[in-house]
Write a structure and sequence with these properties.
The chain is of the alpha/beta class. The chain contains 21 helices and 15 strands. A 6-stranded parallel beta sheet has the order 13-12-11-10-14-15, with helices on both faces. A 4-stranded antiparallel beta sheet has the order 7-4-3-8. Strands 6-5-9 form a 3-stranded antiparallel beta sheet. Strand 1 and strand 2 form a beta hairpin. Helix 1 (7-55) packs parallel to helix 5, helix 5 (133-145) packs antiparallel against helix 8 (169-197) and helix 8 packs across helix 9. The relative contact order is 0.10. The structure holds flavin-adenine dinucleotide (FAD).
């Protein structure tokens, strides 16, 4: 420490060390509050809009006739659409696999700037030394430490931020990583600053507070390295356990290191948030899987049936656990100790079935309730997509590869279900809903499609037109969901136009599930896994889906879908509000984002009566 450092300096820096982290917290809290207001405001608005809509259906019919006149009353709507395009559809693409939307870029830049401002403002000492290292080196450490409760919370599945903002926990994961990386850099700045600041650094190396601090930083550095995308993708399990251990060592070390500087109160809440999340997850696990825990007879009733639908897709079906209810588009974590390498490995999958009273029938409920029926199901038939938990699993290299081996022999597995997680899209206030899926992306769009039909039937939705677009690599894929689609079309009320467009880029034969794609990288799954020619298989017996394709509005086309043209066409015939939901590869997500930028959702389109378009991209955590 410089010798001319006075008591006045100490008073100032102690005060700033206390107050600046608090001010950063207030700023973040205010930001979350504003985002929360928008989210909840828009939710409430859509509920009211639905009610108003019902009352003014006739009026809408007349306004539609004059919709192409520019209306200044639509300026707020044009502004909202402008914001949506700029914030969520303009993207920064780094290489092939990194896509950040402008909202994420803004949050990243704003957070880094906020932290840097608080780190380096008012660092002129009483003696007039500008950017005095004694002022900022300690403060940087304190500011970074103060961020760990929120960083921890953002990394958990049950967190308050998700509740307040309505943003799903997996979307918040980007913010979790971004904040952690920013604080990591700041903590190294703090460490370097302290080394420079205190020439006696070496002599204090034997003091515990410093040793735990160094240990914490080593653990944090390893954690940051293994969480880099290439490593996380390649060796997820190594990332997962290193992350757990690294975070634990870092937080315990950080707690003791900051204790001497009276800063540990910033660290311990992290443990509370983490423990709360674990507690909620354990309670859910026990409640939903209680037959395994000996609370009730009937052990084994939750064994799942596995089927290999194609070379790279496994279907998993199990009886809905008692009390387990979910909404369309939600996710559950599946734990299968007999399949996974480590007993508590949990993998997230979107629930492809739909929890519906309307769509269920005696027959399907019977099917879902009986193991024998599971066994007699035809391989690949689309059977019960309601009242049963159904998952479509893309085969990758780890856990899912082992699951495929089980499915190849039509084995049964014990499954613990943890969930449901994530928000369910509320499409009730939209006049048009377009659902776009590639391959197993229908895990997301199928239940949403079924829920639109059910809600229109129940009078809870204004939807007039629903478009279901599905790109597949082989005509045989249609079997997976054929029955559900037929039933949905039959149940659709006359007020609702249903259009189902299936694009088959693989074999035109109904008898084949030919998987490989020569040039189409945008299909099949969100991780853009490609199959090798050796994986071409011809499976399944005869399959005719004439009953599906004989229905009005259902079409199968050969070749790749032109999403740009399809979406522009839908926008041109739509009025009112339109939602587009997409779940597929990064290629599909990109094509949809591109199609819905300017001028399609631009101010001139909106001002002259074009539909207000909302886009939701579900990426299975990768896009
Ligand atoms: C919200 C959400 C919903 C999803 N829904 C589906 C779905 O309906 N169908 C589907 O096929 N896939 C879905 N996924 C992806 C699925 O969880 C992973 O593909 C699966 O866990 C890969 O397991 P693996 O061991 O075979 O993967 P690996 O071969 O080890 O890795 C393949 C990829 O999966 C990621 N991954 C591996 N394990 C996990 C894990 N436990 N949690 C998150 N990511 C992991 C890796 O980072 C890597 O990018 C979803 C993911 C998320 C986040």
């Amino acid at each position: 420490m410089s010798s001319d450092f006075s008591d006045a300096d100490i008073t100032a820096l102690v005060h700033e060390n206390d107050t600046y982290p608090e001010q950063v917290w207030y700023t973040i809290a205010a930001f979350l509050f504003v985002v929360g207001c928008f989210q909840w405001g828009s939710l409430i608005h859509s509920k009211f809009a639905r009610r108003r809509h019902h009352e003014s259906d006739e009026e809408t019919a007349t306004t539609n006739a004059i919709q192409y006149k520019v209306s200044l009353r639509r300026i707020p709507l044009a502004i909202i659409n402008f914001y949506r395009v700029v914030a969520f559809r303009w993207t920064l693409e780094i290489g092939q696999s990194y896509t950040l939307n402008m909202a994420e870029v803004f949050v990243t830049v704003a957070y880094i700037v906020l932290m840097l401002i608080y780190c380096f403002i008012n660092t002129t000492s009483v003696e007039g030394q500008k950017l005095d290292i004694v002022y900022w080196s300690n403060r940087v450490g304190m500011l970074a430490s103060s961020q760990f409760p929120i960083i921890t919370a953002l990394g958990t599945k049950n967190n308050l931020v998700s509740l307040v903002t309505g943003i799903s926990y997996d979307s918040l994961n980007y913010i979790h990583r971004m904040m952690a990386r920013t604080c990591f850099m700041l903590l190294w700045v703090h460490a370097a600053g302290e080394v420079v600041c205190f020439p006696s650094f070496r002599e204090t190396l034997n003091e515990d507070w410093l040793r735990v601090g160094i240990t914490a930083m080593v653990a944090f550095s390893i954690l940051i390295i293994v969480s880099l995308r290439p490593i996380r993708t390649e060796v997820y399990e190594i990332f997962f356990y290193t992350h757990f251990l690294g975070a634990l060592i870092f937080l315990v070390g950080g707690y003791y290191h900051t204790k001497g500087a009276f800063g540990s109160y910033w660290i311990w809440p992290s443990f509370v948030f983490w423990a709360l999340d674990r507690f909620i997850r354990v309670v859910r696990l026990v409640v939903f899987n209680h037959s395994y825990f000996g609370f009730k007879s009937g052990s084994g009733t939750m064994d799942a049936v596995t089927e290999l639908l194609s070379e790279d897709v496994v279907r998993l079906r199990l009886r809905r656990p008692p009390h387990f209810h979910w909404s369309a588009g939600q996710t559950a974590y599946l734990i299968m100790p007999s399949v996974s390498t480590l007993p508590f490995e949990a993998h997230p999958f979107t629930i492809a079935s739909f929890d519906s009273s309307l769509l269920s029938t005696v027959t399907t409920e019977d099917q879902s309730g009986s193991d024998e029926n599971h066994e007699t199901q035809d391989l690949g038939s689309s059977a019960p997509f309601w009242k049963e938990l159904v998952f479509l699993v893309n085969v990758h290299g780890g856990f899912t590869k082992k699951l495929k081996e089980v499915a190849a022999r039509k084995g049964k597995v014990k499954v613990f279900v943890d969930g449901p997680y994530g928000p369910s899209p509320d499409l009730g206030s939209y006049d048009t809903s377009v659902l776009v899926a590639g391959g197993s992306g229908i895990s997301y769009t199928l239940p949403v499609f079924l829920s639109v039909i059910e809600r229109v039937r129940k009078g809870k939705s204004n939807c007039k037109r629903v478009v279901f677009i599905w790109s597949i690599r082989g005509a045989g894929y249609v079997r997976w969901i054929e029955e559900a689609l037929i039933k949905a079309v039959q149940l659709a009320p006359p007020s609702l136009t249903v259009s189902i467009r299936i694009f088959n880029t693989g074999s035109p034969s109904m008898v084949e599930n030919a998987l490989p794609m020569e040039e189409d990288s945008s299909l099949s799954n969100p991780t853009e896994k490609k199959d090798t020619p050796e994986q071409v298989v011809t499976r399944e017996g005869s399959f005719t889906s004439s009953s599906l394709f004989s229905l009005r509005g259902v079409k199968m086309e050969s070749g790749r879908s032109d999403l740009d043209a399809l979406l522009k066409e839908e926008v041109s015939v739509a009025s009112g509000s339109m939602s587009v939901s997409v779940c597929g590869s990064q290629g599909i997500a990109r094509a949809v984002r591109h199609a819905l930028r300017f001028p399609v959702s631009g101010p001139s389109s909106i001002l002259s009566g074009g539909p207000s378009v909302t886009l939701h991209v579900e990426s299975f955590g990768y896009a």
